[in-house]
């Protein structure tokens, strides 16, 4: 027992203390570490982003003038209806409207047109209505865009 009392206790790093007090254990045992002011300071120091909930994976738009009938509306482009969005004057609702059907047909034409590339003139291919930028693709040699910054 004397050998144990002679060994110095090892000091835990602030990060280790934070992990031990705030992260859930792999096994189902109870953590007995008290929360102190030091760990509260560490919470601010080592703040990790929260995981997105499944409900936040659905697109949410904030369209103001397009009535959610344009390709740069996240909901419309994902071919889904607006729900819990912050849009104003929304027309992307379950009512089958002729305007909405025409807009969806235009979107299908644009998606086919995407195989031919974009033809942006003033946006430098950095806006959501650029077909390549919206699909997270770089512009190709067959795109007809001017002053492209999406290379």
TrEMBL record:
GO process terms (BP): regulation of DNA-templated transcription
Q: Which domain of life is it from?
A: Eukaryota
One CC-aspect GO term = nucleus
- Give a yes or no for keyword Chloroplast in this entry: no
Q: Which residue ranges does the record assign to the CRC domain?
A: 57-151
Compartment list: Nucleus
Entry's InterPro entries? CRC, Lin-54_fam, Tesmin/TSO1-like_CXC
Q: Name one Pfam family in it.
A: TCR
Keywords linked to the UniProt accession: Nucleus
State the PROSITE patterns in the record: CRC (PS51634)
What family is this?
Belongs to the lin-54 family.
Name the UniProt record assigns to this protein: CRC domain-containing protein
Q: Which organism is it from?
A: Blepharisma stoltei
